[in-house]
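User: Could you go from structure to sequence for me? I need the amino acid at each position, not a summary. Structure tokens:
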């Protein structure tokens, strides 16, 4: 167990939280859903059968561009989290963000837990304190730390325009290259960064804002299994048909494929050309607005009224 109160990590988390609130611009404006062609079989979220909505026992969600809009959580998304909590539905966020960036949000947002760095680190409140736990032991993390720096330096050398993500100061188990938050990388350069990471033996994924790379077999799905077992003492796979997963990008595809009640917020359609696995459902609104749709549907079903 590690404490987010550690001074260096706390300074990092505060600095990155401020930077996140200053994101220069959102992703490119979206067309309305009705005007966008997609290769998918997913259906509108508001068509989820009430019986399926009533059977839901919890929600797993990405953060960036799923809960947040332009780097900030909006009032409707915050209220959606609070409403789910009040309805007795646990909400666990599964993100590629750093542990340092995640600390203040794990403390302050109405979430049951955050799993950061793509399944590597769990943050949750327990007896009034914020706990931080790791999927890998300390010796493994220590051995990998130098390799993480080496691979990051190689990417910066070999990929023109590549920069480390602004939350890198708070990272402990992976590296992140900014491609759409404060910097821009063309698709070919994103692919080059991924290729370098993979050539070094890393797992590499691309979110809506970062290219992430890490050593180990953990991922968003293993992190979700871990946190549901750790916090609730339950087997996620045994209940996978009763958990909702909400995401927005190509790095959510594993989760979309695993959960029958998978949901993409509308801005997922920006990645139509890169997606091979679509979610079962799609919201009509983007980002936090779409997440709020998810919460309303679940809340209405539990209350026994039409949404």
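Assistant: Here is the amino acid at each position, in order:
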């Amino acid at each position: 167990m590690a404490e987010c109160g550690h001074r260096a990590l706390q300074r990092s988390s505060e600095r990155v939280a401020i930077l996140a609130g200053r994101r220069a611009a959102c992703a490119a404006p979206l067309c309305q859903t009705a005007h966008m062609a997609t290769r998918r079989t997913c259906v509108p979220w508001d068509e989820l059968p009430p019986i399926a909505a009533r059977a839901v026992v919890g929600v797993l969600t990405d953060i960036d561009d799923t809960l947040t809009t332009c780097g900030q959580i909006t009032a409707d998304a915050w209220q959606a989290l609070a409403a789910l909590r009040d309805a007795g539905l646990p909400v666990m966020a599964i993100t590629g963000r750093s542990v340092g960036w995640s600390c203040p949000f794990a403390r302050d947002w109405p979430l049951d837990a955050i799993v950061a760095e793509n399944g590597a680190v769990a943050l949750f409140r327990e007896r009034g304190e914020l706990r931080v736990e790791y999927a890998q032991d300390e010796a493994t993390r220590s051995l990998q730390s130098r390799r993480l720096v080496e691979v990051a330096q190689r990417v910066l050398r070999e990929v023109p325009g590549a920069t480390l993500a602004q939350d890198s100061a708070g990272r402990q188990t992976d590296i992140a290259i900014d491609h759409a938050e404060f910097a821009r990388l063309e698709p070919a350069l994103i692919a080059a960064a991924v290729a370098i990471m993979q050539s070094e033996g890393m797992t590499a994924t691309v979110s809506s804002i970062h290219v992430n790379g890490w050593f180990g077999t953990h991922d968003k799905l293993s992190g979700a299994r871990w946190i549901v077992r750790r916090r609730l003492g339950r087997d996620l796979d045994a209940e996978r048909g009763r958990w909702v997963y909400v995401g927005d990008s190509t790095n959510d595809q594993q989760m979309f494929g695993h959960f029958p009640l998978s949901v993409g917020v509308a801005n997922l359609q920006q990645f139509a050309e890169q997606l091979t696995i679509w979610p079962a459902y799609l919201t009509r609104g983007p980002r936090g607005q779409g997440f709020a749709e998810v919460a309303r549907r679940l809340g209405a079903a539990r209350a026994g009224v039409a949404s």
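One structural detail worth keeping in mind: The longest strand covers residues 121-126.
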